[in-house]
Amino acid sequence: MYPAVLIVDDEATIIDSLEGILSDDGFEVIHAFNGYEALKKIDSHSPDIVLLDIWMPGMDGIDTLKEIKQHHPSLPVVMITGHGSIESAVEATKSGAFDFLEKPLSIDKVILTINNALNFRKLEEENRYLRKKAIKKNSITGTSPAVRKLYGEIMTAAPTESSILITGENGTGKEMVARTIHQFSRRPEGPFIIINCAAIPEDHLESELFGHEKGAFEGATAKNRGKFELAAGGTLFLDEIGDMSISTQAKMLRALESKTFQRIGASRTLHMNVRVITSSNKDLDAEIKEGRFREDLFFRLNVIPIHVPPLRERRDDIPILVDFFLSQLAEKSSAPKKTLSEEALKLLTQWHWKGNVRELKNLMERLSIMVENDVIGKNDIPAPYNPEIDNLPEIDDGHTRLFTMEKLDQAKAAFEMEFIHFRVDRMNGDLQAAAKQMGTSLNFIKKRISKS
Ligand SMILES: Nc1ncnc2c1ncn2[C@@H]1O[C@H](COP(=O)(O)OP(=O)(O)OP(=O)(O)O)[C@@H](O)[C@H]1O
User: Fold this and answer.
1) 393 upstream amide cis, omega within 30 of 0
2) What's the fold here for domain 312-380?
3) Is the C-beta atom of 239 inside 6 A of ligand 1?
4) Could you report the per-residue pLDDT of 173-222, keeping only the tens digit for each?
């Protein structure tokens, strides 16, 4: 299919000559003599690019451009201008024109500009596609009322510029929520920068956040841009904010209030252009009471609070998450997708999931590697998730000791003792029950135990 170019000009001679040149170059050409006709032709012919004369009677080029951009924001528009009309050119740029062609038109320049615009559009489309894919990959799986409520909160908060504090236990998906907010924010094309306050030594955190000049402190051998600069135009996600020291908290508050900051060792003040999202798995109210977290900073960060509930409070999501992770793993390893038997799934929906979604994700990875069958059964679920499978004791020491024995009888007896004690412990000291389980008599056990 040939790319379609819409030429909009009130001068028939310009249209004729451009039409001739572009048709010879393999473009499909459509024309319009004024802005109104152009808007109609865009709707009826869906051109790939518009060449638009800036000076036209009636609706002029700038007004037509504004209308086009309002209804077709991704359609590239190249303005055709008279020589030296700088003011109109500036206004057209502000209104979203892709480029300019100056009259008298040069054929080579026209073709080059059209191709640039078409390539740019293709790139933009690719970006949009990749972004959609990223959103899908990062999307919060789950249909429980808790997750639906969370989605609602994310969608309300995302398009604002307010600070957001995300709370929730480890592994509940706080980072994922922050990424989703960024993707649906007003700045999705901007960077999403993460800094984990707990993972960075206290004396490095300030320079990581604000950057430093060469020589600002011992070891600062080169200038370094901080995360506030790197996140410009995008979102800065401060994970585990509860671990930030009081002195860094003070600097952070100052920066957020003034919307400016300085690199360490610099005199120049930089303007801050970031959306700040923070997260914490600590109870910040308690931290404030203990004097470890500044209340004024908390209010600054907590303009919109979002709580991510633990997995045990949204067990309905477990089957969906299991299916989601198993699909993801199958895709990654190009192997057939595994499923969980009903009994196996039942076991998992009963577990308390202290490590939340991360723990579930890790278990699915482990099972998909360890289990050969396509259906993962109840017996494949390991301890401690499966109460019917014993949690084996730490036998390493005993193991070594048994293997240092030379005589088989001696090793057998030693093993027997360990085994009996272990089984009796498992039955909370109930010798009768342990004997039954082991298939021996009560007397036999008693004798053995009295020997030890
Ligand atoms: N609802 C969900 N759907 C799909 N994957 C999820 C979901 N929630 C969490 N995950 C996955 O679980 C893992 C842990 O999530 P994430 O890192 O966002 O949690 P977190 O709360 O930020 O953890 P931490 O407090 O330890 O930093 C990630 O691999 C993430 O992709």
Assistant:
1) no
2) Helicase, Ruva Protein; domain 3 (1.10.8)
3) yes
4) 999 999 999 988 989 889 999 999 988 888 889 999 999 988 778 777 77
Calpha distance 141→139 (Å, rounded): 6
How many whole angstroms from 164 Cα to the centroid of ligand 1? 17
**Cα torsion angle, 440, 443, 447, 452, sign:** positive
Q: Is 142 in the pocket of ligand 1 (CB under 6 A)?
A: yes
CA-nearest residue for atom 12, ligand 1, is 358
- Nearest CA residue ID for atom 16, ligand 1: 173
Superfamily per CATH, domain 4-130: Response regulator (3.40.50.2300)
Per-residue model confidence as pLDDT tens digits over 421-446: 888 877 777 888 888 888 888 888 88
What tens digit of pLDDT does each residue of 46-62 get?
Answer: 999 999 999 888 888 99
Report the separation in Å between the CA atom of 298 and the middle of ligand 1, taken as the mean of its atom positions.
Answer: 23
Distance 349 CA to ligand 1 centre (A): 18
Domain 154-309 in CATH 3.40.50.1000: no
> Quick one: which of 58, 63, 49 has its CA closest to 92?
63
Report yes or no: 100 and 81 within 8 Å, Cβ to Cβ: yes
Domain edges within the chain: 4-130, 154-309, 312-380, 396-451
Question: Which ipTM value was assigned to this complex?
Answer: 0.98
Instruction: Quickly tell me which residue has 């009888």 as its tokens.
Output: 409
4-130 and 154-309, same CATH topology = yes
C-beta 81 within 6 A of ligand 1? no
The CA 449 to ligand 1 mean position distance, Å, reads 49
Q: Whose CA is nearest to atom 28 of ligand 1?
A: 358
* 212 φψ region: left (φ > 0), alpha (ψ -120 to 50), beta (else): beta
Give the right CATH number for 396-451 from 1.10.10.60, 3.30.565.10, 2.40.50.200, 3.30.428.10: 1.10.10.60
